[in-house]
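User: My advisor, Dr. K., asked me to get a structural model of this assembly before our group meeting. I'm new to this, so sorry if the format is off. These are the inputs:
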Amino acid sequence: MAISARGLSKRFRSYASNRQRLASWLTGGRWGDGRWIDALAEVSFEVRRGEALAVVGANGAGKSTLLKIVARTLRPSAGSVSCAGRIGALLELGMGFHPDFTGRENIRLNGLLLNFSRVEITRAEGRIIEFSELGPFIDQPIRTYSTGMIMRLGYSVAAAVSPDVLVIDEVLAVGDAYFQQKCFDHLRRYLAEGGTVLFVSHDAQAVLRICRRAILLERGHLVREGEPHAVLEEYGARLAAGGSSLAGDGRPALRVAVRGGAVHSGQFRAVIEEASLRLPDGSTPTVFVSGSEAELCLRGMVIYPVEHLTIGMLIRDRFGNDVFGTNSHLMGQRIDLQPGRSFHARFRLRLDLGPGPYSITAALHAGDQHLAGSYDWIDRLASFEIVQPADTRFSGLVRLPVELSVSDAGPTEPGRVTEMWRRLLAAAPSRLVAGGGGAEFVLAGATPVTTPQEESCWRLGEEAMVALSLAGPVVQLCCRLDHDAVPCEVELWAGCELLGRRTLSESAPKWAELAFDVPAGLVGLPAALRLVTRGVDDLADGEGIAGILCRGFICQA
Amino acid sequence: MLDSLIADRHLIAELTRRDIRSRYVGSLLGSAWAVIQPLALILIFTVVFSVLGRAEFAGAVFPHRYQYSIYLCAGLLPWLFVSDLVQRGTTQFVELANLIKKVAFRKPVLLWSVTFSSAVSFLVAFGLFLVFLAMVGDVRVEVVGCYLLLVVLMAIAGLGKAALLACLNVYLRDTKQMVAIVAQLWFWATPLVWYPTEQMPGWLMQVERFNPLYWYVRLMQDVMLFGKTPHIWQWLLVGCWSAGCFLLGSQVLSKLEGDLADEL
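Assistant: The format is fine. Below is the predicted structure of the whole assembly, which you can bring to the meeting.
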């Protein structure tokens, strides 16, 4: 077991004021009205190696307290938790970064706080900066960072040092979509390599993307453990039931699991017995071809008098996203059914859905009040799968009606290439020196670094592109390799024209000065330098980063 | 607390560096303030007491013109060091609540780093003091050794108090204000800038006998002014007080360490 928690409880003593606290201390608890607050009560769970466990629950349910106990910043009042190996924790934002110090300095400090040796930190520093993609900001004080940038740095620190257990509290949400994706990819790889993740998020999609198991906390108690979608549904149902087992109108709502797994919640004045998805011929397959006509049939009965009965359905994808839902109220249909009557409802629809598994949720409620006046609400009453039609394949969530036509529009005039080229790279300077700004024209994750000889330069990835204005007759660049085992090709392009190619083989500590001649007719145009390293994969793991170090690119008049 | 000093030495070194830098970051004169501050204080007291107050005690007790300055520095520099350490140590946990709540680490590192960063300021001022001593007289190794040992003992006692007060400050934020006032009172109650003479009321010296900081300060002043090294029983006395303070502080801290985050 990577994490094993037994009977974890956490009680806080809360006082109305400091005076009350002092009174309580001095009198041994006889005076002063301290209230005990149970943030966690008897929570036990286990997480295996290679597994990700999600912790879900409403605000104040004890999720963060639980994570802090696992990360050992809080001590449990009772019970124990044991973690195998090193713990990396990403609790809220910032992880104790010091605002006045630069990103790089904070990496060092954080590494030391997380109990890493100086050698390990130095080795990880490059990886952290590269993963965070903060570029030149890494040497700026943290107070100038946006929350997204702080999260990037925090995640990179916690993850780059590959802990045995990674604890993440609700932080991925602040990153931009690109970095979130990067984090999820990293988490998946980390899990596949035997890492363990404890994950708190309100984002159901995030939970479903990485976790195979989840626990639900409610006011400090563990109320459900199981598959993420089941736990999330229960969480949703509890929210729908008002959290306090009362429907919104004050009448009690019940929650019961019937045999077969479906969970009903509501007042049960009217109930749904069965849902199915049929083809027009009446058959009920489980796999449908995208675009087929189908009927969603609901069978149920009215038990007690109901007001404005509304019959609704909802299709959700495998992540729990609402894909499509409607109901009789929205469709402008009035339903009059007396107690004791059964009903058959048919939604006829075309399944223009992307491939993947889907579930059907059905509901009966009063008017448009599907939370407050819920008679019956059943998640995952039935499920089906959509496959691509053999002739027209597509990607995405829905199948939109689409047609395509492409035609050859004749040859491109050279002027247009130049014009386009100029428009794209008009702002490129003719001189780019490491440490002097303009890094946005050095593409492919250029990281500013300092060599052991105190020279500032860029480290470029395996394949880099540099945009430069051709201000004069010669383009020069000063660069070298990390490893001479991996040579680098440097090419100068202007538009579609290859102006020259050189092979770079100098490695540390020698710097190579490469020069390209620029034909007179091209002076004034922007150009692109491509630097490609080959055979990086041949390097053994211990040999560090293989890349190109560059001090500058100059094309002078 | 001692185990953390060894196990977390790299972290302590980094935090100390950060603490020193953050004190002067953004100021024009930077780390020069570490020298200017004690220098200005010593200058003020020298002027106030040896020029204006000469008739009272300076002339009688200190026949030599530099002796009052030596007397003053001998007591004042370590005092500033330790009171700085105690006052900043007291607020450490509250100020770095953000760190304590998010990262699990041994809390004593925060106190050690304050101690070392205050010690650096002290050593800078002490270096100037030594230069001054060398100019007006001779500097003997055993005198400096004895003196520094006394300073270390006083700092250990101060660290113990800082640990105790830092914990208390987490629960009662008034502690910080009280410490500031008590530090002022204690400063004037201890013969640092004034000298105990025959004319002073007898009860005062009776009270001073129960002021542990007076023992340290008196021994420091004696060793610097007259080259008088402490007796073995004097070493024992201050040694026991330092050990007692340190043990009490580190015991309380290790007991409360895990619960601090609850209150921050």
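One thing worth pointing out at the meeting: Chain A has nine helices and 29 strands.

User: Perfect, thanks a lot.
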